[in-house]
Write a structure and sequence with these properties.
One of its GO terms (molecular function) is kinase activity. By secondary structure, the protein is mainly beta.
């Protein structure tokens, strides 16, 4: 019996760790269906979640590599370590702000960890000049049958066990 225990001892260490997905800001975690833009709320681009930010500091919800920082600073894409394409869209109709109201802390091809600072949003300015200041996270390449499950309500940036992808 001891021989078999030792033989298979390492299997637990070889199990694939589930990718961590965390809230990207402090505030209220909400279902993507509540985003005031049909492209997001109807999940045309994929499933995800949104937040009502209280401080405008946006952190990486996943570990991965920055693929794109839009010139208008209103969106960032990340390729996660698990191969998920993650679109972080900062507000609704914010492309029209032409970068005003956003301070970017990352660049393309940069590696990021969960919780690394990405962008600082001027929430007050954005709320006055755009349709919504809600940061939105969309997983654009989920497998068939996968969806985003979240614990709605108050959340802190980087907090664990609030968001997961389920089959």
């Amino acid at each position: 019996m001891s021989f078999f225990k030792n033989l298979f001892k390492g299997n637990k260490e070889q199990e694939v760790k589930k990718e961590q997905i965390v809230p990207l800001t402090n505030g209220e975690l909400v279902n993507i269906s509540q985003v005031p833009d049909e492209v997001f709320s109807s999940k045309m681009m994929g499933d995800g979640f949104a937040m009502k930010t209280t401080d405008g500091m946006i952190v990486s919800p996943v570990e991965g590599t920055i693929v794109t920082v839009f010139p208008t600073k209103h969106a960032v894409t990340i390729n996660s370590v698990d191969g998920r394409e993650v679109l972080i869209h900062l507000g609704v109709d914010t492309v029209n702000l032409k970068g005003e109201g956003f301070e970017i802390f990352v660049e393309e091809n940069q590696k990021v960890n969960v919780g690394d600072k990405l962008v600082k949003m001027d929430v007050e300015f954005i709320e006055k000049n755009a349709k919504s200041s809600m940061p939105i996270v969309v997983f654009t390449n989920l497998s068939e049958g996968e969806s985003v499950k979240l614990v709605e309500g108050t959340a802190k940036a980087g907090e664990l066990n609030k968001i997961e992808i389920v089959k």
